[in-house]
Amino acid sequence: MNPALLYLLISVALIGTELWIMQFSVFWFMFFGLGALVAALVSWAMPELSMVATTGVFLLASVVISIGLYPVLRKWQRQPSPIAGNDAIGQSAEVTETIAADKPGRVIWSGAEWPAQIADGEATLDVGTTVVIRKIAGIRLIVGR
Q: Which residue among 24, 38, 44, 131 sits deepest, i.e. has the most Cβ atoms within 10 Å of its Cβ?
């Protein structure tokens, strides 16, 4: 088999596996897939290279790519993702079930009804009162005037 075609197939298999495994969570398949792609290109450009030399290119390219990209991708992966619901903080909601310090109630926010709890130091909130979402605790909105 032609080494360029062999390494191209290896590249497609490794990069495809990386994409299949939870959105770049492993990286190593991608690094070796890119190394195989480099080996395929070198083998195609220089067909006189032996299979041993092409394998050396594959290993060397994989190591260089791993050393170069791993720190960058780990830093990118560690960036905190936004917490779903943070856009609710500061928004207005309407009380649909009375909320007291000892009894959670419900509010309508963004077209849906949510369980709600009164913020510390707030008085009872009656039905129809417009409140501001102060924070989110699980699926419960903490609200106040």
A: 131
